[in-house]
Amino acid sequence: MNFDGFTSKDFETFTIDGLEDRMDAIRERIQPKFQIIGQTLTDDLSSVLQNEMFLHIAKHARRTINPPKDTWLAIAANKRGYKQHPHFQVGLFDDHLFIWLAFIYELPNKENIALNFLNNMDIIKNSVPDDFCVSLDHTKKDSIPFYVIDLKSSLERFRDVKKAEFLIGRHINVENPILNDGDKLLKVILETFQTLIPLYKLSLELKNVQSL
């Protein structure tokens, strides 16, 4: 199966009523595409990082009533799971595709990661283009353009608030024609991940982290 991009029908999955019917559509329409691009992305990250990375595709297994509002693939350095580790994501809401380097609240050492980011904000500012965006909650569709975000206060919140998160990357609107071109879209995703690798590496450098 070739990857031809994501279609309007893929995004319309999130308008389907009912958990079972929506999950059937996610499994039939979206997850096969995640499997294809996920393997390419995982191989590329493994090569660039010179460390084996593992693909995880969201199963939404804990849901019993409410259908998911989004779905995603995640790539992490842990074979068993990704939520407790810095990880890369590609996923869909009904109105956009997201490409993230994600640090979510399950991270056991997120305070130290936040401190390291605060101590090295110049690396983040120099690595991240202005057209990137930031999310402080992976369950919400909203994002903040990187060029307007108060980076220091966002990272302090990530450090101090138990449920706070920090995700950085790109949003691609559902109407953007690049979504229908598999080769171009995959190139954008790969370029986004490569841009964020300095932050990923920084998140792993937790020795001698000093409080501000």
TrEMBL record:
Signal peptide: none annotated. Pfam families: DUF1054. InterPro entries: UPF0637, UPF0637_domain_sf. It comes from the Bacteria. Belongs to the UPF0637 family. This is UPF0637 protein A6K24_03250. It comes from Metabacillus litoralis.
